[in-house]
Amino acid sequence: MRGMGIRRAKATSSRLRNCAGDLKEKYGEKGVEAHIREVAGSRGIGWVVVYTDPSANTPDTLGSVAGMLHTIFVNDHEVGQLAGLPILLALDLWEHAYMVDYVPAEKKNYIDAFFANLNWSVVEKRFDETK
């Protein structure tokens, strides 16, 4: 699972981490992780995908990091993707992703395990590379 953002790492400085104020403004006190959890828990099968839009960080737009992030629930493989935008994080919520370890009623436990093992530094690196 190397390179997929699995495993926690030490906190590092990044463009994403340095813009905590912008993220707090968009996602509230609980932050982006709580927002992703809310989206994941409110829908059925599919994926929660966090994209970044590098073009949103130009002088003629909001210019904030928060304006660059988009959290989308994708129901089907071919419908709902934000074509052309880099993916920062994808959470697979199809049963095949977790049915070996969790029954469908335990989806919340799977989501908890996903975040317990997520390497945010990989997500931040992906974001930093989209400058």
From TrEMBL:
- Species the sequence originates in: Candidatus Adlerbacteria bacterium GW2011_GWA1_54_10
The taxonomy runs: Bacteria, Candidatus Adleribacteriota
Task: List, in alphabetical order, the Gene Ontology terms for molecular function in this entry.
Answer: metal ion binding; superoxide dismutase activity
UniProt xrefs under Gene3D superfamilies: Iron/manganese superoxide dismutase, C-terminal domain
Name the UniProt record assigns to this protein: Manganese/iron superoxide dismutase-like protein
Source domain of life is Bacteria
Cellular component annotations (GO), alphabetically ordered: cytoplasm
Q: Taking every annotated instance into account, which residue ranges of this chain make up the domain Manganese/iron superoxide dismutase C-terminal?
A: 34-126
